[in-house]
Amino acid sequence: MTWIGITDHAGGRFAPTGLGRGKLMHPGKLIERGTVMIETFIAGDVRPHDLLSIAPHFPQRREIAFRAVPGGGFAFVHRQANGLSHAAVDWAADGRPHTLRLSYSWDTRLRWGRLTLEQPERTLIRSSAVQNPQPMLTEDIRSLILGKCDRRLSKEVIFAAATCGITPMGPLPSLHPCTPIATTKGYLPASEIKRGDTLITHGGKTAPVLHAVRYRVPARGSFAPVRLHAPYFGLQRDIAVAPEQRLVLRGSEVEYLFGQEAVLVPARHLVNGYAASWRPQQSVADYVQFVLPRHEVIFAAGTALESLYIGRMRRKPELLAASVLAGVPDRELPEHGAPAHQVLRSVEAITLIEQRAA
Question: How far, in Å, CA of 285 to CA of 177, rounded?
Fold first, then answer.
């Protein structure tokens, strides 16, 4: 995946040959296949407004707009010459604040387009077909990223990014490629582990790797790397993970506060400046994770965390085909039941960390 642009309220960076290391792209004047992704924080009730939009007039009048609409919906409009592409996706707003990810993907050669809404901390996914998708002008993508043509960028937007590829839906990998993972051959960098290797799981058991998943994402928002610092969480060295990577925490404090042997805590809830901190920002981040026969506890540099949770994706052909596991036959995928442990919310995680530090 080659990302060509990323922006937030601190500024933007646009590189048509690609951000970070990797394959160089030369999209030319038109981008016939790609994705524009927006992550936004919706605080309570939604009023109609543009999240991200431009409306250039030269050499012809055009419009690209991602809009929040009342009731929790989002709309996309792309007006160019005599063509119009548009779609809407609904989301049942409940009046509470949420982080949401909105993505428009298109492939004009296949006459295909999709507007997708995801909630990173949950499994919520909504998508809608985009009628009559049109190629994007590279100059218009540049304007969206760099703030030209009277761009509107809502204060609620966390980041926006563009790529010349189709972004997947559903679960994504969440471990830095250099993360040492416990295997039957000893600790190996996550990037070197492949299908057929065997990982050490909780209780000294083992599990084979059915699939090793790799993906590159914008290093912002719900993708921004979190650095977990040793010796906290039993770490032998610092590691970096995605904010949604969940650690498995045990101990007397867990039993006392939650009445359970163990709990799952997303890394973003652990950021406090000393046990965990946000890693210095780059444009993109690479992540790795592993599909095991069961949703397991694995070990990274001495700390316990979960393997990739895919639920019952094999029963959802459309989601599977649009995921990072696209192309994998459903017969080769396991079914993961509900997580074995309670997943802590932010306030609960803060209470647990404070109790441990006391």
Answer: 10
Taking the C-alpha atoms of residue 358 and residue 343, their distance in angstroms, rounded to an integer, is 22
- Angle value at C-alpha 158, between 276 and 240, nearest 5 degrees: 25
pTM of the predicted model as reported, rounded to 2 decimal places: 0.92
> Which stretches of the chain drop beneath a pLDDT of 50?
none
Residue 5: partners with Cβ closer than 8 Å, 6 or more residues away = 12, 13, 14, 15, 19, 141, 142, 144, 145, 146, 161, 162
Q: Residue 71: what pLDDT?
A: 73
* 297 contacts 304 by C-beta, under 8 angstroms: yes
Q: Taking the alpha carbons of 236, 242, 243, 245 in that order, is the dihedral positive or negative?
A: negative
Where helices occur in 18-177 by DSSP H, the ranges are 138-146
Place of tokens 């950021």: 271
Pinpoint the alpha helices (H) of the chain: 138-146, 252-258, 317-321, 346-357
- Looking at residue 153, its amino acid is L
CB count, 10 Å around CB of 195? 12
Alpha-carbon distance values, 91 to 39, 119, 125, 127, 164 (Å)? 15, 10, 9, 10, 27
pLDDT at site 23:
57
Q: What is the pLDDT of residue 52?
A: 96
Give first-to-last CA distance, the chain, whole Å.
44
